[in-house]
Amino acid sequence: MREIATADEFSVVAALGSDELPEDLVDYSKKASQRAVRRLLDRTFYAPYVAAVELHKQYGQGDLEKFALFTVSSWDPSVPVPDYAEVEAEDRIERLSHFYTHPANPTDWLRRMPNNPICNIAITTGFRGPCMHYIGGADALSMITTVALSTIADGTADVAMVVAYDMPDGEHHLLAHEGDSSAAAVVLAKGAGDRPASRLVRSAADQPAGTTALVAMQSYIESTRTALVAT
């Protein structure tokens, strides 16, 4: 798959940087989403949801049955660390067990899942192509972009959107209701162009260790912004 990504036969055909997100993500989400989506969207999910919906709105193309969606983030709510985890107490183990295995209701589990944005974006946009979420930083962005390109190469998708979202440094294990993320996104398609997708793959892979997927994505978008025009 790495060879596919370096063949320069794929292009970034549209992009939305984190600095281009609407100012009020909550208001945008409420207006854009269905009731079922609004029930499951939480603070962490607003940015990736809005980035994907807004970019698709601007791009305005693609067979929804063959529109792939991929997300990547360092956010990993499966291992949150509550404050009392480091406090010696007789009931600490019991409280931690309850915290990790007994959410208040089923929607709490959905709100902890890092693929939550994929579900809600697909409900709103109608994307029905391949989808996947990776947890990781810039290296994960490089890999998932390669995977996205492979779905176009083998014909299972015509276009693919890759959304990178991340929490601020030190907040990657917060629960979804505890912190705000930011996001950026690109749309990939087959065909040579001024913005080869292989550049995103390479530039993300070459980022210093510890670089988040969002920082790598935003850096790519800013470096190619003069040529990025949604068609």
Written account of the structure:
The chain is an alpha/beta fold and 231 residues long. Helix content is 42%, strand content 16%. It contains 10 helices and 5 strands; from the N terminus they run αβαααβαααβαββαα. The chain is globular, with a radius of gyration of 18 Å.
Topology, pairings included?
Layout: H1 2-5, E1 10-16, H2 25-32, H3 35-40, H4 43-59, E2 67-73, H5 92-101, H6 106-112, H7 116-125, E3 131-135, H8 138-153, E4 159-166, E5 182-190, H9 197-205, H10 213-223
Parallel strand pairs: 2-3, 2-4
Antiparallel strand pairs: 1-5, 4-5
Helix pairs in contact: 2-4, 4-7, 8-9, 8-10, 9-10
Give the total of beta strands.
Answer: 5
Helix and strand pattern: HEHHHEHHHEHEEHH
Q: For the report, how would you describe the main beta sheet? A: 5 strands, mixed
| Rg, alpha carbons | 18 Å
What are the segments in which pLDDT stays under 50 over at least 5 consecutive residues?
none
Fraction of residues in helix:
40-55%
| Mean pLDDT score | 86
The strand line-up of the biggest sheet is 1-5-4-2-3
Strand percentage? 15-25%
Whole-Å distance between the termini?
27 Å
Please, how many helices? 10
